[in-house]
Structures are given as C-alpha cells and as structure tokens.
Amino acid sequence: MASKLSVLLLLLAVATVTVLAQRRRPTNTNEWNYRDGSEKVNMRGVANLTQVLDNWRFDILTQMKGLLQNDHQSLLPDYARIQPLSEALDDLYKEFNALKAHLGDLTEKFSAIETFIDEVKASRANNANAGTAPAAGAGAGAGAGAVPRQPTRRVMRKKATASS
Question: Where is this region: Disordered (predicted)?
Fold first, then answer.
C-alpha cells in the first residue's frame, strides 16, 4: 500500500512539473516579435520610407483622377457594346420560343399519328387472334397467336468501284 502511495505521489509530482513547465514556455514561437531590435531602428529611414509610400499613393490617385476625367474610355467598359449584345440575346430568346412552339405543333401532329398507329396495331392483333382462335383450340401447336410478318425487303448496296 505504501509503494502504491509513493508511485501515486511521484506521478502527481511529474504531472505538476510538466504543467508548470508548459505554462512558462511560450506557446507561439513562430510569431514575429516586433519589439525585438526596436532600439536599433533608424527612425529617419522609417520616416523616409513613409514619405516615399505616401508620395506614391498621391501620384497613383492623381493619375487615376486624371484618367477618369480626361480619358474614361480607357478605364471603363465599352457601353456601346451592351445594346447590340442585348439585341442578340433578345433574338436568341425569340428563336428559342419559336422552336418551342414548333415543337409543340409537331407533338400535336405526332399524337394523331400515334393514335392511328395504335388503332392499326390493335386491329391487327384482333384479326390475328380471331383467325388463330379456332386453330388454337384444336391444338395447332407453336404457330398459334403469331402475328403475320411483312414481306421481306432486300437491301441494295452500291458496288465498290476500284479506283487506281
């Protein structure tokens, strides 16, 4: 029991030392400390750099102001192109709507053709069932209920000409 207590106290002491060591240790060593070497900075050089940057800013803003007042076409988009683009887009929209309307007309025409084809198929199926019904009752075999086939068609191919 005494050995367990001494091991426990030893672990507690190690944990306490570890925690205290991490508190003293800085966590972010990667950050730049701007105060290091601040005594060595030449303030006259900093003032000169600040003056140079300020002059650049003034020159850039002056040039931009002059361009906007005198030659705005070089900085701003060409607004003359917007109207033709708008008209072209309007034309495309009208063509799309016309194609959509034409597609609707074709769909209506094909629906009438589809109903006609469905009626023809139904009548053929009824005629085939009516013609084979007595034979099927008599045990005609594998040919019962077959739909009559159309006459076969031949495919004619062009003869290959030898060109040398």
Answer: 132-164
Count of C-beta atoms within a 10 Å radius of residue 83: 9
Per-residue pLDDT tens digits for 58-77:
999 999 999 888 887 777 77
Would residue 144 count as lying in a domain?
Answer: no
In a domain, 4, yes or no: no
Q: Is residue 143 part of a domain?
A: no
Instruction: Tell me how far apart the alpha carbons of residues 11 and 17 are, in angstroms, rounded to a whole number.
Output: 10
Cα–Cα distance for residue pair 55/58, rounded to 1 Å: 5
Identify residue 1 by its one-letter amino acid code.
M
Whole-number CA gyration radius for the chain: 47
Q: Is residue 149 part of a domain?
A: no
Amino acid identity at 132: T
In this prediction the pTM is: 0.28
The token pair at 65 is 């102001």
pLDDT of 120: 92
Placement of tokens 């030392």 in the chain: 17
Residues 140-145 have a mean pLDDT of 49
Residue type, 34: Y
